Amino acid sequence: MRKRIAGCLVVLSLGALVAGGCAKKDLVKQEPAPAVTAPAPEVTKPAQEARPEAPKAPVTEQTPVREPVVAQEPVRETPKAAAGDLQGQLQKIYFNFDSSDLSEDSRNVLTRNAEYLSKQPSVKIRIEGNCDERGSDDYNMALGERRAKAAKDYLVNLGISSERISTISYGEEKPVDAGHDEAAWSKNRRDEFVVVK
Questions:
Q1: What is the pLDDT of residues 74-99, one digit of tens each?
Q2: Of the options 3.40.30.10, 3.30.450.20, 3.10.180.10, 3.30.1330.60, the CATH number for the domain spanning 78-195
Q3: Residue from 85, 106, 74 nearest 195 by CA
């Protein structure tokens, strides 16, 4: 029995040596193969590196693809969006007591308003002339109309089409400040610019 065990051990030892020798030969064979095809593994390695990044790249590529789509949607809604933005940009102008003459500050504001309007040629506005509480109702309605017309004429001279501008007078009917002193009255003597389309 000892002879059989010793024989098995010898066979196992030889098998291990043969297997170990074969493994070394396989490793030697595998090393030259990559060395011969060294450019291929280098190309493969960047490709493998690109593969983990590849999921990132499509996400990045999808995001810019979506951004132009989102950017195009507001372009389709430009008249509405532009009207809201423009309404926020259009500034009021103010007048001296019993006057429809444009001050230098008012002309500067109208110039900025004209710049905004020229960027949105489809937008129409209404100029609302207002007065303080002093004077008769009829007088203030006429004064408010003169104030609105003065602003319209100035905008037309700056190149804004008169067809895009309407005017209305509210006289003393829409005060901003209900006070009864010069501080309140100076706020009420104004033209407001309202986007209507």
A1: 434 445 555 567 678 899 999 999 99
A2: 3.30.1330.60
A3: 85
